[in-house]
Design brief:
285 residues, alpha+beta, 4-stranded antiparallel β-sheet, 5 helices, 16 strands
Amino acid sequence: MKKISLLIIAMVICSSNAFAKNVENLFVVKDSQIQDFTPKLEQVLTEPIVKDNALYSTKNNYFIRLYQSDKDINVFLNCDKAEQEQYQSKLKSTGFKTYSLTDKDLQSEYSSDFSNFVELNNITFDNVKIKKNKYNPYNKPLPNRVISTMQYSEDNINFVAKRVAMKSKIKRYVEGYEIVVTNNTGDNIVLKQANSGDFVGLYEIAKKAVLPAGVDFVPIYGLIAGIKTDLEKNRFTRPFPTNYTIKNNESVRILGLTRPQVSPIVDFKFEINGKEKDIQLNTYQ
């Protein structure tokens, strides 16, 4: 009987852990500045780590981040569901005018920031599953002949861009580019986005792109039947990464197609130590 009781207790404990869940909440602090509100918030929290307008504790399983919005502060809270009322009370006990906020777009944005922050800083919270980065690069070696190579470096972020020749019949209309971005900053960084108007089919793989060929317009994506052409085309037309964490001393590879003789310009936006940094890569030599 005693063994059965112990088993039931163990099952209850495991069950409660299995159903433990973190939840997210938004608040607004009226007529306040982050530098004034943060010290007061620190006083009511347990062992907070303060970094980049975030206050968190992995031991106590909570995360709070502050966003200045004109004269107000938007507050994002992630904590155990069983403790959300406790943290709501703590936020409102600071003496500032604090109210609950409902905004699905803001919550989605701040939730994405939370995931990036956790991944960037190698933080682990109980009951929080971080979504895997959706970027799906082509990681195998390229069989294409390299036409030219250029290198560029700024703020310890290194770029190597290679113009390559296509092997299939698509070579009549486009050339390929392989761009490798390497992080040598000493810290993890985030590639927020990469934009260029010089690539063909960069974001919309399924759509047809039209290119001038003499006086005609040739639809690249409906152009040639053949497995080899499709495979090669698909390697070079994957969407660029967004909000992608590049760990220190690691790289990310980007592939794209350009019109012949076009040297693409790519505008990169990074987050480095909590600050955004724009770097323009001009592949012209």
